[in-house]
Write a structure and sequence with these properties.
This protein has helices at residues 46-53, 70-86, 102-110, 126-132, 139-151, 172-179, 194-201, 206-213, 229-245, and strands spanning 2-4, 15-17, 41-44, 58-61, 91-96, 116-120, 156-160, 184-187, 216-219, 223-226, 249-253, 266-267. The protein has nine helices and twelve strands. By secondary structure, the protein is an alpha/beta fold. The radius of gyration is 18 Å and the shape is globular. The chain binds iron/sulfur cluster (SF4).
Length: 275
């Protein structure tokens, strides 16, 4: 495993890179096999990473694989528990599509003031999610877990990324999330590379196929396939209204949408009271 320099401009914390990558990658993902250049490596090996982690205010677990894949869950637990023991003010920024093991939920509950926890819920269509994200937990299991975490006092941020608007009614997702106590979410329609777009087009699901066919190539800050600006702007605006009407604060991730800065509530700098 490795600890590497920050990968995103919105938060200045190093990233944890696991050796065990996602075995059944999401159709839209091109990060699961990304390597890190030697110049960006801060530490290597379990012991080396553990020793270095506590020097930082926090770390991102994990942009290039899911840190709660069964093959990574024990190591993630041990790294976070031991780093908190050395530096109680350390803040892990955890993003997952998996069900977090019970013992780690207990650990997170005991340290909830030093944690930023993001759980991905891109839409409610179980069949589409099982095709788009074949190695991840069912949406129903993620929702049960989110409720449990919120009931334990953890402020879960729901990540709606990439959002292909597959639910028949744009209000269904925020209404469902509001019912289980979600107060904050972040959304992005994503930028796909050619291979990932083709994988979606070649899937056996019409909703996924149609979503991929709507994407156009853009030479923006990040080259790739995305929705045309006007469509993206209108769709994200509708999402912001739908989430707000359900009582959930929704921000749009700036990484793929810098061209929408003037018209939508973009998240340009990662702000969180624990961070
Ligand atoms: S779980 Fe995350 S890192 Fe793994 S394939 Fe899916 S999007 Fe990529």
């Amino acid at each position: 495993m490795k600890l590497a320099k920050a990968m995103y401009s919105c938060h200045d914390v190093p990233v944890v890179i696991f050796d065990n990558r996602c075995g059944a990658p999401c159709l839209y993902c091109n990060l699961f096999n990304q390597t890190v250049s030697r110049n960006n490596i801060l530490a290597t090996g379990d012991k080396g990473v553990l020793k270095k982690l506590s020097d930082f205010k926090g770390a991102y677990f994990s942009p290039t694989t899911d840190c709660f894949l069964p093959a990574n869950a024990s190591l993630t637990h041990a790294l976070i528990a031991r780093t908190w023991a050395i530096n109680p003010r350390f803040v892990p920024l955890v993003v997952t599509k998996q069900v977090i093991p019970d013992k780690t939920i207990q650990l997170f509950t005991q340290n909830k003031e030093n944690l930023v926890l993001q759980i991905s819920v891109p839409n409610l269509d179980e069949e589409a999610v099982s095709i788009l994200e074949p190695g991840t937990a069912k949406i129903s299991d993620r929702l049960v877990m989110i409720k449990r975490l919120i009931d334990n006092g953890i402020k879960v941020i729901v990540v709606v990324m990439p959002w292909f608007n597959l639910d028949e009614d744009i209000n269904l997702l925020p209404q469902k999330l509001a019912k289980i106590g979600v107060a904050k979410a972040i959304i992005d329609t994503g930028v796909l590379q050619n291979k990932q777009r083709d994988q979606m087009i070649n899937s056996n699901n019409q909703l996924i196929k149609q979503a991929a066919l709507k994407l156009v190539f853009s030479n923006g800050k990040k080259n790739g396939y995305t929705l045309p600006r006007n469509i993206r702007n209108n769709l994200l605006r509708k999402a912001v209204i739908a989430f707000n009407e359900s009582g959930i604060k929704l921000v749009v991730c700036t990484a793929d949408n810098p061209d929408l800065e003037d018209s939508l509530p973009l998240c340009t700098e990662f702000k969180h009271h624990n961070f």
